[in-house]
Amino acid sequence: MQRRTRAVACAVPQSFSLRVNPRLSARSIIRGLTLMVSIAATQSFAQGTTAAPADGVYDLIVGTYTGPKSEGIYVYRFDTKSGDATQVASAKTDNPSYVIASRDGRYVYSVNEQPGDNGPAGQRGGISAFGFDAKSGQLTFLNRVSSDGNDPCYLSISPDGKYLTTANYSVAANPGGSFAVFPLQADGQVGASVLTVHHEGGGPVKGRQDNAHVHSTVFSPDGNYLFAQDLGTDKLYAYRYTPDGSRGLFGPTDKRYTDVKPGSGPRHLVFSADGKYAYLTSELTATVTAFHYDDGKLTQLQVVPMTKPGFKGQVGAAAIHLSPDGRFLYASNRGDANEIVIYAVDPGNGHLREVGRQSSLGKSPREFSIDPTGQWLIVGNQNSDTAYVFRRDPQSGLLEANPKRIEIGSPVDFKWVSPS
């Protein structure tokens, strides 16, 4: 994450620590302690909401960094027949840089990415919940809880819809990233965290890997595992998800983690729809790694560069998404590249082949999204206060020139909800 520049010396071994919310029941505490003992001993598309609308018009929910040109979350009506987007609503909340919708489209959750590197050590980031009326596009604030860390930057909802997880990029009072787990209540509110897992250690890149930095939390397609990508330690940590509590809510797998190249800085992970493969962006080296996936285990298949041969500028790989049909993979690269790189996916072995690249027409394309029909790709240029809507060719995977432009302050994340 380019915004984070804190450099704190760290010479602790690669390990975990866990905190359990004191307000939990005795039974929950016992389950949490079971997880803690286990740890000490061993060391897509917008979460798919409702059916496609008959008229092809979706609600597009946009998360931003707040400032002079942005006040929070924005809702647009997006016509998939024309690619036109019209703003219909907004909600004030600070730095909702990542957003997610419940599967039924009734609720929207956002991070509140605070306090940043220069904030007070005792201050924590937040998670905010909103009721969402998809027909009108209106958001209604429900509640906000502490993210139990600093700089929360990612959200996932468990496959059963019971829990929300966030990646806390840093923890000011205790340098090192974490992920936290929050129960989702029947009325849409998010409960206080019931579990916080800290990673410890670092990597070779000074200033970026002086300690752990969890950058994403992604559930496997089978719903049995959570993968936490740690940019600081160059590891993809794997946790078994057992909501019945029989083995603790989340417990480390036997393998515990998958290593990637030292200094690469793993950021975001996405799984293929059939669950056979997974793809990872590594921010610090601007690469995409393909993995074979099987029952909680990732096996590396291929590493491909995102930059052109001979490229000498700054890099900063960010988001990664598959097309709805799974035939193409897209990844954004910031730094001096500022582009979307397009790969064809071999369905037989999961390997990638670069087929094109498209300038984002701005600075720092941190996140992007492909609409559910696969006809459009929208990318936000965080440092240019613009988003562009590119028409996408489903056959070639390429993005057409002359995109539609949207003026919006510091756009970051995009999620789709059907109003019908």
UniProtKB/TrEMBL annotation:
Signal peptide: 1-46
Family statement drawn from the similarity comment of this UniProt entry: Belongs to the cycloisomerase 2 family.
Presence of the UniProt keyword Ubl conjugation in the record: no
Pfam families found in the cross-reference section: Lactonase
Assigned keywords, A-Z: Carbohydrate metabolism, Glucose metabolism, Hydrolase, Signal
GO MF assignments: hydrolase activity
PANTHER family: 6-PHOSPHOGLUCONOLACTONASE, 6-PHOSPHOGLUCONOLACTONASE-RELATED
Organism: Paraburkholderia caribensis
The keyword Membrane is assigned to this record: no
Name of the protein in question: Lactonase family protein
Annotated EC: 3.1.1.-
